[in-house]
Amino acid sequence: MKNVWLILIAATALQAQVQDITSDRIRAHTRFLASDHMEGRGVGARGGDLATEYLATQLALIGAKPAGDNGTYYQNLTLVGSQTKGSEARLSASGGGKNVEFQWAAEFIGGSGRQQPLSDFEADAIFVGHGISAPEFGWEDYKDVDVRGKVVVLFTNEPPSADAAFFGGRALTYYGRWSYKYEEAARRGAVACVIVHTTPTAGYGWEVVRSSWGNEDPQVKLVAGEPALALAGWITAEAGERLFGVSGKSVAEMLKLAGTRGFRAMPLNLRIKARIPATLREIKSRNVVGIVPGSDPQRQGEAILYSAHWDHLGIGDPVKGDNIYNGAVDNATGCAMILEIARAWSALDHKPRRSAVFAFVTAEEAGLRGSEFYGRNPVIPAAKTALNLNFDAYEPFGLTKDLVLTGAERTSVWQTVQDVAKRFRYEIKPDPRPEQGSYFRSDHFSLARVGVPAFSINSGNEFWGKPADFGDKAFAEFNEQHYHQPSDEYRDDWDFAGMQQISRFGFALGVEVANQEKLPERIKL
Question: Which residues are registered as beta bridge partners of 502?
């Protein structure tokens, strides 16, 4: 009987703590982290340093113990900042007596991965479709072609599919991501990789590409002998028309060819010439990490990991007179929610059996750099990290009836996830925009790559008290007008009720898994 009473008391205390997670505190953290004083939380910039100081201070105030280097809250890493000198950058294509030049930012954007002051080249161009080598799907865009020393031209995304067994159907796999395209091109020895942008294949407009790639790129320091591209670049669809036009082709024709079974890479019968000067500097950045130890001596060495990226794009090219890319939705919101979950966890009188680690990671916008570093240098070993719950970009439009938890079904905690969702009156829905490839675009992916059961908790598409099409319209408006733009700013009229409820759900799910007897199974990607 005593054990029953203890269980009831613990359950009551947990429910009280869940209810103590409030939108007011989430709002306050979001407002501060997204303020102009943070200068867009750029990596290696004053605003980023201020943001990490704030996050570490908040962890200390709630009683989370430091879990970083040398007894601090900071997990330090060194990156190389490469900023293309846009006014001096040049890109052109010539062939068949024709020569076309492309204008920086308006028609092409990108940078060098070689980490040197100047990368220049002139080389033959080869069209490689989507640039994919996927033997498990019977797809090889690089078959019988040697691209060493060449420029590969390609589209992002994948061959069109409605078959879940072929490139995931509508859902984008990692093969469709721009990061994979550049990685594979470098592995193949290409001198450069140029992606022809279209909004449908990329999932966002050219303004997003320009703002994301026009700023300093924090890169992992190259190892001697490691292949790197002299240009990892993008060109607009209009520029693509001009480039393919040299060979008498169009963007539509080439995109159709790229998605056709039996596609073979083809020379474009033109040479691409580029000059990419860059300003280089060493960047000292940091993840912010705190831990609340578990109550069970046998399970303290295992943990639930909560994560969110603190960085955004910093100060960049002005849009309508505003040059601060505040990143309020992306991702001051996720950081604020993790801080509130950490506060609630730390305040529990009886802590869960496993520990909880709270990580705010750097350089997500540069390709998940901070979470990759954490994955290689975890506070709790990956084999003993029970679950990673990632929080990234929440729109302030109120309560949703549903959640999107892409990747949760890959884990052995899937039943637990569904049970907790039911308690919160959430319906778990498939990703309404699988072609966006969200599973591969956020920090949980870095943890999944090292075997940790990991996924992001995303709000759904059906809002309480709003029309059925509200979610689609709200997402489209944010994606087209505010994503990676200075207009992603905090406003006082924002509704944080949805973030409050998702934080409560994430807290309850973490506690549930932290108290389970068995450690969840590792995953394989």
Answer: none
Using only C-alpha atoms, the chain has a radius of gyration, in whole angstroms, of 24
Residue 493, pLDDT above cutoff 60: yes
Burial profile 132-166: b = 16 or more Cβ within 10 angstroms, e = fewer: bbbeebebbbbeebebeebbbbbbbbbbebeeeeb
Tens-place pLDDT, residues 412-421: 999 999 999 9
CA distance 470 to 476: 10
Residues of the chain with CATH 3.50.30: 85-280
CB-based contact 234:243 (threshold 8 Å): no
Q: What are the φ and ψ backbone dihedral angles of 46, each rounded to 5 degrees? A: -55, -45
Helix (H) or strand (E) holding 309: strand 303-309
State the pairing for strand pair 98-102/90-95: antiparallel
Contact between residue 352 and residue 280 where contact means Cβ atoms under 8 Å apart: no
d(CA 495, CA 483) in angstroms, rounded, equals 18
CATH code for residues 14-79+293-514: 3.40.630.10
What are the helix (H) ranges across 319-448?
333-347, 369-376, 414-423, 444-448
CATH class of 85-280: alpha beta
Which of 423, 493, 433 shows the shortest CA–CA distance to 458?
Answer: 433
Distance CA 154, CA 266 (A): 11
**Strand, coil or helix: what is 282?**
strand
- In the three-class reduction of DSSP (H, G, I as helix; E, B as strand; rest coil), residue 156 is classed as coil
Q: How long, in residues, is the chain?
A: 525
* Global confidence as pTM: 0.91
Q: First vs last Cα of the chain: how many Å apart?
A: 45
Closest by CA to 304, choosing from 338, 255, 349, is 338
In the numeric block, the tokens 């293309």 are attached to 84
Q: CATH 3.40.630.10 region(s) of the chain?
A: 14-79+293-514
Please state the rounded mean pLDDT for residues 41-51.
Answer: 97
Q: How many angstroms separate the CA atoms of 341 and 21, rounded? A: 7
Q: Which two tokens stand for residue 517?
A: 């007897």
